[in-house]
Every structure is written in structure tokens, then in C-alpha cells.
Amino acid sequence: MKRSPAIQSALGAALALSVILSGCSGGNGADAPAASGSPAPSAAAAEPSPGGGGGAGEEKEPVTLRFISWKDSYNELYELFHQKYPWITIEQIPVNSQPILEIIAAQEAAGTPADVTEIDTDLITFEQNGLIEDLGPYIDRSDIFQNATFPDGFFDTMTFKDKKLAVPMVDVPMWVLVNKDLLAKHGVDMPGNDWTYDDFREIAKAITDPDAGEYGVTTQPEIQMRLLSTKAIADGHAANLHYMNEDLTQSLLSTPDVMNDAKWLQEFVTKDGSMQSEADANATGNVTKEFINGKTGFAIGGDWVLPTLKEKATFEWDVLPFPKGKVSQPGYSIYGPLALLSGSKHKEEAFLWLSFQFTPEAQKWKIDQGANASVVDPELTAYYDQAPIWEGKNIEAVKMARENAKIQPGLTVPAWNEYNYNNILNDIIFGDRDINDLIPETEAWNKKTAELRASLQ
């Protein structure tokens, strides 16, 4: 597959990507040989039995899978996988802030190709350069995948030109964080899980006390990026997160309804005074930029905030689902993509690592870390009640976040990295940028993504 000059330039001449990866297959797992010359997995070989495999007394050759990941907290998960497939060991290749495309090329150059990778940019770049496998044929042969029930649209954000390019390594949920002590100080009860965006706004005003340095809402980009985007869906103004239309081909950010949503949140700063501007937050020591400081009532958080809150919060906190809008009550979730590299010498075993993510033991481990279950299963839903991380918290809100989640798009949207929804809205909500700047910005991007999509057909 031909690789774009831009990608080759990004990798650098020293890496010589065009030479190093010239033998990588851009085909699917059904008929593309592995780099070592071994065939793609057959139906029988796709998922060996947990005990180690084939006939009585048969021993598997030890395999080390090389996994590119920036997480340093997966050691327990690696051990669970090793217990299920004793002949396979996971060796993590740390990212260390380096672009993953460069890591792939460097590993190939060293003669130690990686097998599996998390993805740090759009999947189209990897697909167009022949770096990742189409997982469709593997999934079709997989007992684990075929026997599991997944949420509607599970593969949608990771499918491009009818190819399943990745699966979620983790389903990262988000919730509205609540400072219960601040609510109680102002005589406000903890809202129910069916609360509305009007409730959110009114409570934020009620618990604001500038003289005490206390504000209803944390001055954080997450509020704009996650909550405002979700509100647009809840009120029927957009079909997908980040103001995207139904088929993810165009942004609706410049439509009157969505612009009014932006004005709604902007008024928390300019009218209600329940959220500080960027300038005011800076002038008062940035205290209201961090929920952990205990001076704000609401913030947006995901699994990444839980360890810090549990260890360091000096106030009583809890979680709520995203509020209810005029037509629905969607949540917000991120799929962290996991892909099988075309240069892998161990494709059979590498797919076992991918499919293992959706076994009960792996799913329960992820729930224990604060992630969503990716599989629809009553046993997993019940397990939320047992997970120590949620002891004493609003577990029903956590379950709602999973059930109502909309998935963050972008992985297979052409020119997504050029879609300037985030920075411009930060400047409008927390600064003094003219909201009408949304119109030319959005029109330009809509034209760009449409042209690029057409060129990729």
C-alpha cells in the first residue's frame, strides 16, 4: 500500500519507513500471511483453549508479544492473560511521549517488530499506510467475540471502508463529579440521577459564594468539551458528540441551535457568575481549575481522576450521570483503540490478546479500575455493586453512564485533527472570543473533511 509523503516525513529519513515496512501487509487477517511466513489463524487456531491448547501433552512454543502502550498500570492484566494462555508473555513497549508511528518504525528497524498497539491518532493514518490488520475476519472466527453481546454501534467509531481496524482496549466513562460538602453547606440536596440541565445550572448558582472563593462549576476544558457536547445531543441539536451529524460527515457546530448551546454555557461565566473565566481563575490562584481543591461544586471526571480523589480529597464527593435534556439523557465515553499490527510475527497470539479484553476476568478487572464494561452481560452489570472502587458511591449513576454512553468520534473521521471545536469553544466560553467565529471555522472544516473523504473512496 502506498504511504503518504507526510507520514514518511513525520517518521524521518533515519527510520526509512518506506523500506522498513515495505513488506507489511495491508490486507486482512483472512488471507494475509504473517511476517514470519505463518498463515493467518484458522478457525481452530484462532483461540486455543485456556489450558494451553491442542492434544494431550502438547506444549506450545513460548511467545512474547510486544505491546506498544503508554499505560504503566496493566501488569495485573498481563498476568491474568498469562494465566489463561501460559505460553504467551506480554512485553510492554513504553511510549514515553514519542509518536507511535515512530515507535513502530523503530521496532521494525531493530528487527523486533511490535505485535499490538494502542493508537494515539486517527486510525485512517495507520490504515492508509498498511500498518494495521482488518480485524473483521479474526472477529468472525472468534468464539469470544461471537458469544459476547456488545452495545449498539460498538465497532462504528473504529470501522473504515468496511474494515474493523481496532477494538476498544478500554471504555473510559465520564460522570459529573459532585462536591457533596459544598452542596450541604448551601443547603442543597444531592440531585437524583434524573436531574436536568436546568437543575445543573440552578444548583451551580445556588452554591456559588465568591467571597468564600467557592463556585458552582470548575473552570476546566472538560466542562466545555464533554458536557456542552453531550447537551447538544440531549436537546436534539446534534446526533453525535462534538456536534457531529448522524453519519459523522459534517459538523453542526455553526448551526443556530448549537451556537445557542454555547451561549448557554458561556452565561455561567458572563451572567450567572457560577464559573470563573480563565483570566479570573488565573487571578485568584487557579484554585477553581481543579475539583480536588474543594472549592467548586461540579466538574467532569473519568476513571483517571478516581485514584487521586480517593487518596487526597478532603471533602465528600460522589458522581452523577450527565443531566437529562429535552429529548434524552446521553452520557460520554471514550474508546481507547487497540490494533493488531501488520508487521507482527505472532498474529494468532496477538489476536488472543485483543479478544482476551472481552472475557469476564478482563472486564471485571477493568471495572475495578473504574472503566466501563464493554460487554453487555448481567453478571458484569451486577459486578459494579461489588467493585471496591465504587463502595459508598452512586453506583446506579455509574451503571447509567455505561448504558447511556455516546462514544467520542474522530478515529475514522477524515481531517479530525484539524477540527477546531475544542480550542475555539474554550476561547469563547472562558475568554472573550466572538462566538460568530464558529461559522467560518466550521464551514472550512466541513469542506476539508468532505474533500478528504472523497479522496479516500
UniProtKB/TrEMBL annotation:
Alphabetical list of PROSITE patterns matching this protein: PROKAR_LIPOPROTEIN
Record-linked Pfam families: SBP_bac_1
Source organism superkingdom: Bacteria
Biased composition (Low complexity): 30-49
Residue span of region Disordered: 30-60
InterPro entries registered for this protein in UniProt: Bact_solute-bd_prot1 (IPR050490), SBP (IPR006059)
The protein, known as: Extracellular solute-binding protein
Organism expressing this protein natively: Paenibacillus albicereus
